[in-house]
Amino acid sequence: MDTAYSINRHWSDRFIPEIRRIVGAHLLQVAPDYLDTRHATDLLMLDGRDMRIAARVRRHGYAGRYPYDFTIRSRLPSGNPTDLAKIVNGEGDWLFYGHANAAGTGFDLW
To answer: N or C: which terminus of the chain has fewer CB atoms within 10 Å of its end residue's CB?
Structure first.
């Protein structure tokens, strides 16, 4: 595993709990009364199938410098497949794209 990947992965993984909170709010919906009263169902998944969600986090300040930019790499120095190549090949269902806050504890924008 190359060093750049390990460093970037370690940095971005700190945002996973916040991404789960944000994305989860969009995947769950309140069950109708009938399901609640008859089938012990309070929440429903938007779609119950296996969904794969890519998450990309930009470092703080990027959105201010490039407010209309959305970036997905087309090549990596390591030669490994990029997210663009994976998406073109049909991988991934959803993409979360966020901009880290100054403290690195959450997001300014997503």
So the answer is: N
pLDDT digits 0-9 by tens, 59-72: 999 999 998 899 88
Closest Cα partner for 97 from 49, 63, 74?
63
Please state whether the predicted TM-score (pTM) of the whole model is above 0.90: no
Q: pLDDT tens-digit profile of 77-88?
A: 888 898 899 989
Please measure the distance between the N-terminal and C-terminal CA atoms of the chain and give it in whole angstroms: 29
Cβ atoms of 41 and 35 closer than 8 Å? yes
Whose CA is closest to 29, among 37, 21, 41? 41
Using alpha carbons, list the distances in angstroms from residue 41 to 26, 51, 89: 18, 21, 37
What is the C-alpha separation between 93 and 79, in angstroms, rounded? 24
